[in-house]
Design goal:
Layout: H1 6-20, E1 29-35, E2 52-62, E3 65-71, H2 73-108
Antiparallel strand pairs: 1-2, 2-3
Helix pairs in contact: 1-2
């Protein structure tokens, strides 16, 4: 068999449909951290500790270096879905790549 089958095309259309519906997407990771401070008598050092936060941090790579930006509660709420959209886009692209690899492997017999 050469080229994508009808089933392959249906799978491709399902993935590209999800890609076409994607919203705004931000690269990197949004994390919510609870932290201890440096004050020796602070409640964050108690047992059990009452940590400070949450602090929202956006971490990503720029020119090979990790960059972290602190976000406000409002920014984390506003942009949080954009990080989820980016993950969904990466998952859909990976699915499309895997489908393409299966077709090539089936048609060419590579990596067997």
């Amino acid at each position: 068999m050469t080229g994508p089958s009808a089933q392959d095309r249906r799978a491709q259309h399902a993935v590209t449909g999800r890609l076409a519906e994607a919203g705004f997407a931000l690269p990197g990771t949004l994390i919510h951290r609870m932290m201890r401070c440096g004050k020796p008598n602070c409640a964050c050092k108690a047992d059990p500790p009452r940590l400070h936060g949450p602090y929202h941090q956006w971490t990503r790579k720029i020119d090979g270096k990790t960059v972290t930006i602190n976000l406000t509660d409002e920014q984390a709420t506003r942009y949080g879905p954009w990080f989820a959209h980016a993950q969904e886009l990466r998952a859909a692209l990976n699915e499309l790549e895997e489908l393409s690899l299966r077709i090539v492997q089936r048609d060419e017999g590579w990596w067997t």
